[in-house]
Amino acid sequence: MLDELTKTAAAGLELPLADVPPAQRIAGAPRTGAARLGDFGGVSLGVWEMTPGTMRDVEIDEVFVVLHGEATIAFEDGTIVVLEPGDVVKLQAGQRTVWTVTKTLRKVYLAQRS
Questions:
Q1: Mapping DSSP to helix (H, G, I), strand (E, B) and coil, where does residue 9 land?
Q2: Average pLDDT, whole number, for the chain?
Q3: Which of 17, 92, 99, 103 is most buried per CB count within 10 Å?
Q4: What are phi and psi of 84, to 5 degrees?
Q5: How far apart are CA 8 and CA 4, in angstroms?
């Protein structure tokens, strides 16, 4: 999409959502969805969303900006990061995390290609 355009309305982009797989789901009935917008400087650019609930994940190298919503990310070392609109976060490949979303979270990300 972004390869053909110079502007994308990321906050309002319609994303198809799917249930978080049972192996990742911890609480609630979270759903996630993403749209890859293209590539930039050798990394993928896209939009990702998660509805309320809790899930575990193993991260890839990524930088993201929260567009809207509220959540926390808990890391194995006990660190907890509170996410709010406007926050910029860097994740490292291999980090094991637990995402708890209280208000549907949407982010724009730059991430290693998978």
A1: coil
A2: 93
A3: 99
A4: -140, 165
A5: 10
Please, which residues have CB within 8 angstroms of residue 80's CB and are 6 or more apart in sequence? 72, 73, 74
**Within 1-114, where are the H helices?**
none
CB count, 10 Å around CB of 63? 14
Contact criterion met (CB below 8 Å) for 99 and 89: no
Nearest CA among 104, 69, 62, 103 for reference residue 85: 69
Report how far residue 67's alpha carbon sits from residue 114's, in angstroms, rounded to the nearest whole number. 23
Q: How many residues does the chain have?
A: 114
The larger pLDDT score, comparing residue 6 to residue 110, is at 110
Map out the domains of the chain with their CATH numbers.
20-111 (2.60.120.10)
Over residues 49-86, the pLDDT tens digits come to 999 999 999 999 999 999 999 999 999 999 999 999 99
Helix%, strand%, coil% for the chain, nearest 5: 0, 60, 40
Structure tokens, 38: 């293209």
